[in-house]
């Protein structure tokens, strides 16, 4: 026993081990984090997040993928970290924190966390897909029959293609337009190397891409395997919000 307290949180089924690391005592080695995230040998999670102090913000969020490596920004993880900080009594109603991609604002109420995402300034448009960075890199392709689509194999093929390996890897989103204000998104996640139940930065990228390709207006409702999110944005993508539930599942001692 290391006598470290951990908490398990989830946001639309994207789940995280959360550690209050304000004393910076957590031994953050890759092997240990990978072990804790393992669904058979550990607690089981898509990632692990350290909540740390920062002199200029309410807190700092440090995110690791399930493979134990520090990742780029995680939207659902950000929403869960905000809920965690609220539960720890760090803020009430509104917060400002820092993550690997910069500053984030968020509002919390009992039902949802609304997280302001980074601005998106450049989007690569291709015939069959868009690519952008919403804090993490995202490939977005539109498909029909999303519920029976082979996300794992098709996503893996793209993620491990020579082009994307050379570019540092990517998360891969498959999207179907459901109605005038709703899309369904499924994501193969880099660093988890599997489909997750929901990916916040991926959902954000998918909504922006749906606006560009089909003119769907903000706010866009997003269905994922783990529940529903909403993405609102202005048309130059400088004010993007990811809104949805985030909650504690259990806690324990390591
Ligand atoms: N699940 C995360 C994305 C994690 C990004 C990660 N897979 C990477 O590319 O490093 C989210 O909700 O935005």
UniProtKB/TrEMBL annotation:
<comment type="subunit">
    <text>Homodimer.</text>
</comment>
<comment type="pathway">
    <text>Amino-acid biosynthesis; L-lysine biosynthesis via DAP pathway; DL-2,6-diaminopimelate from LL-2,6-diaminopimelate: step 1/1.</text>
</comment>
<keyword id="KW-0457">Lysine biosynthesis</keyword>
<comment type="similarity">
    <text>Belongs to the diaminopimelate epimerase family.</text>
</comment>
<feature type="site" description="Could be important to modulate the pK values of the two catalytic cysteine residues">
    <location>
        <position position="138"/>
    </location>
</feature>
<feature type="binding site">
    <location>
        <begin position="200"/>
        <end position="201"/>
    </location>
    <ligand>
        <name>substrate</name>
    </ligand>
</feature>
<keyword id="KW-0413">Isomerase</keyword>
<dbReference type="Pfam" id="PF01678">
    <property type="entry name" value="DAP_epimerase"/>
</dbReference>
<protein>
    <recommendedName>
        <fullName>Diaminopimelate epimerase</fullName>
        <ecNumber>5.1.1.7</ecNumber>
    </recommendedName>
</protein>
<feature type="active site" description="Proton donor">
    <location>
        <position position="74"/>
    </location>
</feature>
<comment type="function">
    <text>Catalyzes the stereoinversion of LL-2,6-diaminopimelate (L,L-DAP) to meso-diaminopimelate (meso-DAP), a precursor of L-lysine and an essential component of the bacterial peptidoglycan.</text>
</comment>
<feature type="binding site">
    <location>
        <position position="14"/>
    </location>
    <ligand>
        <name>substrate</name>
    </ligand>
</feature>
<feature type="binding site">
    <location>
        <begin position="189"/>
        <end position="190"/>
    </location>
    <ligand>
        <name>substrate</name>
    </ligand>
</feature>
<keyword id="KW-0028">Amino-acid biosynthesis</keyword>
<feature type="site" description="Could be important to modulate the pK values of the two catalytic cysteine residues">
    <location>
        <position position="189"/>
    </location>
</feature>
<keyword id="KW-0963">Cytoplasm</keyword>
<feature type="active site" description="Proton acceptor">
    <location>
        <position position="199"/>
    </location>
</feature>
<feature type="binding site">
    <location>
        <begin position="75"/>
        <end position="76"/>
    </location>
    <ligand>
        <name>substrate</name>
    </ligand>
</feature>
<feature type="binding site">
    <location>
        <position position="65"/>
    </location>
    <ligand>
        <name>substrate</name>
    </ligand>
</feature>
<feature type="binding site">
    <location>
        <position position="171"/>
    </location>
    <ligand>
        <name>substrate</name>
    </ligand>
</feature>
<dbReference type="InterPro" id="IPR001653">
    <property type="entry name" value="DAP_epimerase_DapF"/>
</dbReference>
